[in-house]
Design brief:
It is a single chain. The chain is of the alpha/beta class. The chain folds into 2 domains: 2-197, Rossmann fold; 205-305, Orthogonal Bundle (N-(1-d-carboxylethyl)-l-norvaline Dehydrogenase, domain 2), CATH 1.10.1040.10. It is built from 13 helices and 8 strands. The protein has helices at 10-21, 33-40, 51-60, 70-74, 97-106, 126-135, 157-162, 174-184, 199-230, 234-242, 263-276, 282-294, 298-305, and strands at residues 2-6, 25-29, 64-67, 79-82, 114-118, 143-147, 167-170, 194-197. Strand 5 (114-118), helix 6 and strand 6 form a beta-alpha-beta unit. The chain is globular and about 70 Å long. The chain starts with a strand and ends in a 17-residue tail after the last helix.
């Protein structure tokens, strides 16, 4: 299948490379000419285990290509993925300007039926805005807009993509479902499900997943803080509750709070969505408050350990990604 991926950031490049590996012909589009030229020359702009081998194999075999031209990139594509940044705006909500601009640009370029897929993390209702932007310049009969959120973890993104726990697809179009069933078939041969739902539910699923994981981390940090006061060992508690199949072992390590490029902005964006709908999401409010406070918790622990004398001490930081 001919596929276009607009945006060659972390999600876009992994998506494009992995779909090329399953036999599709993929063109990745980006406005950054220097980045495109470097990828054409064989340079992989991000580090992700396993990605470089797939990148070089598929570029060498002609299944993975790069361009700065949107019209060239989507020519003949049956499916177009939008993998564009959605940075937090000043009020905490996701900024959709990049997605909506590309949607506007796509309209005049679509000449046959195409599935447009939101791969970015976007607020509920974004698929409708994308549809409206495209439909200003092309008949609605020639395209469907689908929500297909990613659930990639940094460090294991290729494995997550090639062997997903599940594939969430938001669409009520039978035509789009048939195309996406074919596209994802090589990735779900082991019985992992493709879960179809409406677009709004798919958009909310991504936010709900990240907010839940952030909440799980925050809960363990609160338990750790209480353990300090009562003399309990949080690592023993982690093992004690992590072996409960209802809870699971992951995201139970206490620390200085969640971070990275996704959890903070996604939790904030979901809280903003709640606010815009006149609903107070009390748990999320507390999660954000506790996470912010947790950043300072380690300082008094360090000071206490060294009897308030940090002069001349060398302090190492293990891990900078999050």
């Amino acid at each position: 299948m001919k596929i276009a991926v607009v945006g060659t950031g972390y999600v876009g490049l992994v998506t494009g490379t992995c779909f090329a590996e399953t036999g599709n012909h993929v063109t990745c589009v980006d406005i950054n000419e220097d980045k495109i030229n470097r990828m054409k020359a064989g340079e992989v702009p991000i580090y992700e285990p396993g990605l470089e081998d797939l990148f070089h194999r598929n570029t060498a075999e002609g299944r993975l290509n790069f361009t700065t031209s949107l019209s060239e990139g989507i020519k003949g594509a049956k499916v177009i993925f939008l993998a564009l940044p959605t940075p937090p705006g000043e009020n905490g909500s996701a900024d959709l300007k990049y997605i909506l601009q590309v949607a506007k640009d796509l309209g005049p370029l679509i000449t046959e039926y195409t599935v447009i897929i939101d791969k970015s993390t976007v607020p509920v209702g974004t698929s409708e805005l994308v549809h409206q932007a495209i439909a200003k310049n092309v008949s609605p009969d020639l395209f469907d807009v689908v929500s297909n959120p990613e659930f990639l973890r940094e460090g294991v993104a290729v494995e997550d993509f090639m062997k997903p726990d599940r594939v969430v697809i938001g669409t009520e179009s039978d035509k789009a479902k048939e195309i996406l069933n074919r596209l994802y078939a090589p990735l779900v041969r082991q019985g992992n499900p493709i879960i179809f739902m409406d677009e709004r539910s798919a958009e909310m699923t991504k936010y709900a997943a990240n907010a839940f994981l952030a909440t799980k981390i925050t809960f363990m940090n609160e338990i750790a803080n209480l353990c300090e006061l009562v003399g309990a060992n949080v690592d023993d508690i982690r093992r004690g509750i992590g072996t409960d199949s209802r809870i699971g072992k992951r995201f139970l390590f206490a620390g200085i709070g969640y971070g990275g490029s996704c959890f903070p902005k996604d939790v904030q964006a979901l809280a903003k969505t709640s606010e815009e709908n006149n609903y107070q999401f009390h748990i999320l409010d507390s999660v954000m408050k506790v996470n912010e406070k947790q950043k300072t918790k380690l300082i008094p622990v360090i000071k206490n350990h060294f009897n308030n004398d940090l002069a001349g001490k060398k302090i190492g930081i293990w891990g900078l990604a999050f």
